[in-house]
Design brief:
Blueprint (H helix, E strand, L loop, with lengths): L11 H6 L2 E3 L3 E3 L4 H11 L7 H20 L3 H7 L2 E8 L2 E8 L5 H16 L4 E3 L8 E3 L12 H18 L1
Antiparallel strand pairs: 1-2, 3-4, 5-6
Helix pairs in contact: 3-4, 3-5, 4-5
Length: about 170
């Protein structure tokens, strides 16, 4: 089954947040195991789409959201307690391997760990779309860091068209 979400390709933590979106009302990809299977496939995560994994991923999504929107880190730290990075030296050089004892927590743990990397790299570039009816998130990779919309083709154009219509009306 194809991923029905309007915006794909963000880093894993933000992609997890983007499993909720607006399309004639609120939509949520993670309402069941079928949606979880779609997200896991799109994210390239080899994990079982069972109820335990769904519950863990929903907990991780909530924790990532609270960290991004409310700077509440307790839930994210609880998710991170489920795993660690095990460092190894291989023929290809040093590597870090996720070590998560309970496989149900692996996808959510990976998303939480990804958020840490984004926060280390550029916390001010984690953004929510500026369109008032959009709930999607993106990592601003623009050169000057001024991107406002998850997609210029949708939310950006809608905002500019509304502004133009309002100006012509007055």
């Amino acid at each position: 089954m194809l991923d029905p979400r309007p915006h794909l390709g963000e880093p894993l933590a933000l992609d997890l947040l983007n499993t909720r979106w607006m399309d004639n009302g609120p939509r949520d990809l993670l309402i069941d195991r079928a949606g979880l299977e779609i997200w896991l496939s799109t994210a390239g995560i080899d994990a079982t789409a069972d109820e335990r994994t769904l519950e863990a991923v929903l907990a991780a999504r909530s924790a990532v959201y609270d960290s991004v929107q409310h700077t509440d880190h307790a839930a994210l730290n609880a998710i991170l307690e489920h795993g660690r990075i095990r460092r190894q030296l291989t023929d290809a050089g040093p590597t870090g391997i996720p070590d998560v004892a309970d496989s149900a927590w692996l996808p959510g743990w990976l998303a939480a760990d990804n958020l840490l990397h984004l926060l280390e790299r550029a916390p001010d570039r984690i953004r929510q779309c500026a369109h008032p009816d959009c709930v999607l998130f993106f990592f601003d990779t623009s050169k000057n860091g001024t991107r406002r919309w998850h997609s210029m083709a949708t939310c950006g154009n809608r905002t500019k068209a509304a502004r133009h219509y309002s100006a012509r009306k007055n």
